[in-house]
Amino acid sequence: MPYTVPKLTDFSTTALDSAVRELVSALEEESKAVRSEAEWKIFHDRWTARKNGIRTQIGELWLNAAPKEAKREVGRRVNSIIEQIETTVKDTDDRRKNLEILKKARAAGIDAQIDQARRALELSERLDVTLPGIRRPIGAEHPVIKTMNEMIGVFRNLGYSVEEGPEIETDFYNFEALNFPPNHPARDTQDTLFIAGQESKPLRDRLLLRTHTSPVQIRTMQKMKPPVRVVCPGKVHRNDALDATHSPIFHQIEGLAVDTNITFCDLKGTLDHAMKAMFGSSVKTRFYPSFFPFTEPSADVQISCIFCDGKGVRDGAPCRNCKASGWIELLGCGMVDPNVYGFVDYDASKVSGFAFGMGVERIAILKYGVDDIQLFFQGDVRFLEQFG
Ligand SMILES: [Zn+2]
User: Which among 18, 78, 276, 303 has most CB atoms closer than 10 A?
Assistant: First the structure.
């Protein structure tokens, strides 16, 4: 008995399921029976003919007959059946063609062609049209890399170039050349991850995971004479326990400008511009004294809170993001300490310059309102796809 589309009176999920199942199994049965072009034509018309084809009939007998409240569900199923009918009809044609090539090749006795045709046929028969298709998700830039690239873009527009360096550094580049005194806390094993088995080497040659991107500044000055304008982005490591704001791996961007007559005013102007480019033109910056071994004088830079517009109050309550102060600390900077020039053969009496550095995750956290730094490193696609 060939399949006929039943009139539906019951539109419950169970009844719909069983009607769909019956139709799909008839479709598969009939597809398998097709052997020639003539048979395929009949199969094609029976299922897809505009007038009275099964595809048309389910539209009339199922969808049009469905009561208002069932229309949506029936429509969804009818659409998916139509799609399946179209694919099956096309696949049946491919299989039928392969079958005919095989027949011809057999008749001609050409072994190579027989083999080839048989393989093609096996492939087309093995294709299960009821399996869901493969969807290839489109990748997106990681929020940390995205933020880093935006930051780099700001400085590129100011004429800076990008320099990179090794993540495994020597004590010399990570500390000594940057004017870190021998007992500076950053050298402590609590902060720095040292490579094991280095004890036989002199201290300056011992390897460690860089704790900042500043070694790249030294490497750049060693190979380049002033004027120098570079930004150094990259991954750094500290022996920090994981929590919402600390991670043993994070990213930094540092900048360095060395030339004749560079002053603290240039530093202030550059960073004020960069913060406005990053967070909007209404953002204010303020500098206050700080200490870094490789800059003198040094300053910490705060920006006016982007959540409460620097008011310290949001929606009548103290702003949590700036702890009601109206300011958020974002980066460190200063004029390059003349001692540093001694390590790279620059004449400290002729050149001057400034350096600055910031954590990329910290900026990404502010920009995207992320509340836990660990989310950046867990690789959870549900988190990452929001930035696509
Ligand atoms: Zn605030």
Answer: 303
Say if residue 167's pLDDT is above 90. yes
pLDDT digits (tens, 9 = 90+) for 45-95: 999 998 889 999 998 889 888 888 888 888 888 998 999 999 999 999 988
Tell me the CA–centroid distance for residue 318 and ligand 1, in Å: 8
CA distance 358 to 255: 9
* Backbone φ and ψ of 210, nearest 5°: -55, 140
Q: How far is the CA of 198 from the centre of ligand 1 (A)?
A: 47
Using an 8 Å Cβ cutoff, are 99 and 123 in contact?
no
Residue 103 in tokens: 């027949």
Q: What is the DSSP letter of 244?
A: S
Chain segment 22-31, per-residue pLDDT in tens = 999 999 999 9
Burial label for 213, CB within 10 Å (0-12, 13-18, 19+), is: buried
Give the Å distance between the CA of 328 and the centre of ligand 1.
8
Ligand 1 centroid vs 322 CA: distance in angstroms?
4
| DSSP 3-state of 118 | helix
Contact 213, 190 (CB under 8 A): no
Q: Going by C-beta distance under 8 Å and a sequence separation of 6 or more, which residues neighbour residue 107? A: none
Burial grade of 378 (CB within 10 A; 0-12, 13-18, 19 or more) = exposed
Measured in Å, residue 307 CA sits from the centre of ligand 1 at 5
pTM for this prediction:
0.64
C-alpha angle 196-199-201 in degrees, rounded to nearest 5: 115
Round to whole Å and give the CA distance between 224 and 55.
73
Helix/strand/coil for 388: coil
Quote the CA–CA distance of 326 and 169 in Å, as a whole number: 38
Q: What is the pLDDT of residue 242?
A: 84
What is the sign, positive or negative, of the torsion defined by CA atoms of 242, 244, 250, 255? negative
| Mean pLDDT (whole number) for 145-174 | 94
Distance from residue 315's CA to the centre of ligand 1 (Å) = 11
